[in-house]
Amino acid sequence: MLLLLTCLSSQAAEKYENPTPWSYQRLQRPAIPATKDTAWPKDDIDRFILARLEKENLRPIGDAPRAILIRRASFDLRGLPPSQTEIDTFLRDPSPDDLAFAKVVDAFLQSERFGERWARHWLDVVRYADSVGRVWNAPFLYAARYRDWVIDSLNADKPYNRFVAEQIAGDLMPAKNVLQRRDQIVGTGMLALGSMNVQEGSYEQYILDQVDDQIDVVSRAFLGITIACARCHDHKTEPVSQKDYYALAGIFYSSRTLSGTPNRNEGVAGGYVSPEALVDLPTALDEPVGPPTKLPAGLHSMDDLRELGNPKETIRYDHDPHFCMGVIEGEIKDCELAVGGDPFEREAAPDRGKMNMPALPPLPNIPPKASGRMELAQWMTQPTHPLTSRVMVNRLWQHLFGEGLVRTPDDFGITGADPTHPELLDHLAIRFVEGGWSVKKMIRVMMLSRTYRLATTGNPEHPDAGNKLRWRQNPKRLELEPLRDTLLQLAGKLTFDRPEGIQVAGTGGKGRHGVTRGLLSVEDPYRTIFLPVVRDNIPELFSTFDFPGPTQIKGQRDVTTVAPQALFFMNNPLVEELAAEIADKAGKDVKAVYRLVLGREPSIEESGDAAELDLQTLVQALLGTAEFRYVF
Fold it and tell me: What pLDDT digit, counting tens, does each position of 359-412 carry?
């Protein structure tokens, strides 16, 4: 045991002493490897995968059949099963498999459902919620504007470098017209979504906590490194000093965050829900950006609700199309280093943006009267930055293949996992940048590879049973969103409309009249992404199916297997109701039920067994099967 601990300690020390982790080193274009089997690869992705397999004397498994492949592609791209017409068209397409599948992928990428599916992946990463959480859980009245911005940006295939920049400095970026300028400002809502203690008595403590949240989300979401760990001391494992942290902190310290949920010491009217703490979007291209100078009539604040005498019925806040959450320029000043993280014991402030992280390029010089957010965005999105493109292509790979090439998608640092295929990761990162940072183009490349199209079947005694070398595709269990959306769609109840107005109510207080709540429930017909996510008050169904805590930066969800998941399909009233609707929609026909729920015909044995069951019971039984709940 002592020897083992000594070895582990030695390995940890060796890793710690490495001044430049692999992920900080510059992108290098790897040579495309040669393979013994030249017929199998369809893309250079396949050549990297196959060359590694051949080195270990292994072979990839066979391809998935078309019926499996279209279901996989539909759930991966739209979060919904393919229609029977789409299945039949693909199965009967006389074109070669490569061409036939390319038609399917292209059609799904152009669907508006694509943005709804992939936006949820991104919202997990940036800790999206419709309330602030913590001690006084006030509602974020305009968080949904940012959510819809993400959906629309992905549907429009906004280049990823611009997608990143707008979330950091959209208010500072040039725009061709006022609509584009308004859109860019909405993107900065990402920085305003943090879970803050709005009752914090020390305003300086509150601001430093807010800055820390912004550093954490920016560094982990875009760069995959944990810079926030250097708030109180030099980072214990990464080459990030406390001075580096406060050099970055100065950028956000010089910015003003307008979330609509002000700290009690900000001197903003309206209580903990106030339009005076929101961004008033410009109506002209050259109009300055800031809080509203004149408030519209209606219910927009906590004080407005108080004037009604805290009525027992649910009162909706009025929606103003010119309001959004976001970040603008504030009082420009460097952030003094807080000794041990103590806001009242400070040392000299490092210059904004003057970070000295080994191997990473320096930030551009920040003008004296600028926060530095624009320069930070430029630094992160330069084509040669070693982290930004690597982190994003790894996220795309993870959602399509079940696990990333780096299996810790939010941590590319020393404590994170090393890439299983480092040359392939760099190949994809360079290809992503040279392809114009197009997310859709990169997803298409990955999906048309032979590697993506492999079957999921495998031998548990295979030398690579964990599939580290990608000799097969990984089966993926449906997350909450596609699971619930599919149930509603199969029952004919799902609408693709977006809910109008503000879908959260309450004031966030602790009393009986201060509860923050969502105004849509899991029974409502909207896609799950449109249901409000209230911190500390998410629906039971969400937690049952591993929805991430909305205060967390969560690039990869946990996958648990617990009894309530099975019980949900067995006796939940919502499932019983929807199963009855699905049975009616199938016309009481067993074959139609199988086609509708599983996308295939039943076998002779299945038809015989099903004849002995009530059709609603059959539907519920099929909904509880692994074939329905997994993508193979």
Answer: 899 999 999 999 999 999 999 999 999 999 999 999 999 999 999 999 999 999
Residues 6+ apart with CB under 8 A from 582: 490, 491, 593, 596, 597, 619
Instruction: Encode pLDDT of 327-341 as tens digits.
Output: 999 999 999 999 999
Name the residue type at position 70: I
Strand partners, 454: 63
Distances (CA, A) of 549 to 138, 229, 258, 390, 535: 17, 20, 23, 26, 8
Q: What is the pLDDT of residues 404-451, one digit of tens each?
A: 999 999 999 999 999 999 999 999 999 999 999 999 999 999 999 999
Residues 6+ apart with CB under 8 A from 485: 79, 80, 494, 527, 528
Contact 24, 359 (CB under 8 A): yes
- Say which residues have a Cβ less than 8 Å from residue 393's Cβ, sequence separation at least 6: 425, 428, 429, 432, 442
Contact 593, 581 (CB under 8 A): no
Exposed/middle/buried for 112, CB within 10 Å: 0-12, 13-18, 19+? exposed
Between CA 358 and CA 39 the distance in angstroms is 43
**CB neighbours of residue 367 within 10 Å:** 11
Q: Are the C-beta atoms of residues 139 and 505 closer than 8 Å to each other? A: yes
Region class of 309: left (phi > 0), else alpha (psi between -120 and 50), else beta: left
Farthest CA pair distance, the chain: 79
How far apart CA 2 and CA 22 sit, in angstroms, is 30
* In the block, residue with structure tokens 């014991």: 345
Q: How far apart are CA 408 and CA 555, in angstroms?
A: 8
Distance between CA atoms of residues 419 and 310, nearest Å? 55
Bridge partners, residue 624, by sequence = none
Spatial distance between the Cα atoms of 144 and 150, rounded to a whole number of angstroms = 10
162 Cβ neighbours under 8 A, 6+ residues apart: 381, 437
Q: Where are the alpha helices (DSSP H) in 156-232?
A: 160-169, 178-187, 203-218
CA 571 to chain centre: 31
- What CA–CA distance (Å, rounded) separates 313 from 305? 11
Residue 72, helix vs strand vs coil? helix
Contact 47, 410 (CB under 8 A): no
269, HSE (Cβ side, Cα atoms, 13 Å): 9
Against a cut of 0.85, is the pTM above it?
yes
The three-state secondary structure class of 196 is coil
Cβ atoms of 500 and 144 closer than 8 Å: no
Q: Is 258 helix (H, G, I), strand (E, B) or coil?
A: strand
> 142 near 324, Cβ under 8 Å?
yes
Q: How many CA atoms lie within 13 A of 141 on its CB side?
A: 30
How would you classify residue 21: left for phi > 0, otherwise alpha for psi between -120 and 50, otherwise beta? beta
Q: What's the rounded Cα separation, in Å, for the pair 325 and 274?
A: 11
| Contact of 353 with 366, CB cutoff 8 Å | yes
Do residues 457 and 61 touch, judged by C-beta distance below 8 A?
A: yes
Q: Please give the backbone phi and psi of residue 347, each rounded to the nearest 5 degrees, phi first.
A: -125, 180
With beta carbons less than 8 A apart as the criterion, state whether 393 and 432 touch: yes
Residue with tokens 């001075």: 243
Contact 216, 225 (CB under 8 A): no
The DSSP 8-state label assigned to residue 229 in this structure reads G
- For 102, half-sphere exposure in the C-beta direction (CA atoms, 13 angstrom radius) is 10
